[in-house]
Amino acid sequence: MCLGVGVVTGRVVRFDATRGYGFIAPAQGGEDVFLHVNDLQIPEPYIRPGLVVEFEIEDGDRGPKASFVRLPEGATPPTTPPAAAAIGAVRRAPTDDSLCDVLSAEEYTQEITEVLLTAAPTLTGAQILQIRAGLLRFGKDHGWTED
User: Fold this and answer.
1) What are 29-61's pLDDT values in tens digits?
2) Beta strands of the chain (E only): which ranges?
3) Which is higher by pLDDT, 39 or 81?
4) In terms of Cα–Cα distance, which of 60, 70, 11, 10 is closest to 34?
5) Please, which residues have CB within 8 angstroms of residue 85's CB and are 6 or more apart in sequence?
6) pTM as predicted
7) For the chain, how many helices (H) and strands (E)?
8) Domain tally for the chain?
9) Can you give the CATH number for the domain in which 24 is found?
10) Nearest alpha-carbon partner for 51 in 93, 84, 79, 28
11) Which domain does 59 fall in, by range?
12) Are 40 and 6 in contact (CB under 8 A)?
């Protein structure tokens, strides 16, 4: 149900592309608004902290929820290519631990395998094992996995 506030402008506070959700801080202040990937009207890879968006506010199951999330009229899409934005997002340390889970090495490699199979279905098993090993080392170095 729409809360009847019309179109609102705000900035993306955080967005977890793996889980498909994040939050927007409305420009007029107030409670952060839940953002779900299914409500995007722009390509998902452009969603990142600091991006100014327009949206409508609905009453979600757990509070305010953004719908019809788009760039403000006349705004141009971010100039950073989506792949570069994704790489930058990986290198930045999160500012809020509420979206971060520490996974076991087994859980982490299972998640990586699913991502690789979805993103690049032509990878061979040997390539997946090689990539997984490198990413697991990277994850351990950054505290994303535990032994």
Assistant:
1) 888 999 999 999 998 888 888 899 999 999 888
2) 2-16, 21-26, 33-36, 52-60, 63-70, 103-104, 145-146
3) 39
4) 60
5) 45, 46, 48, 78
6) 0.53
7) 3, 7
8) 2
9) 2.40.50.140
10) 79
11) 2-70
12) no
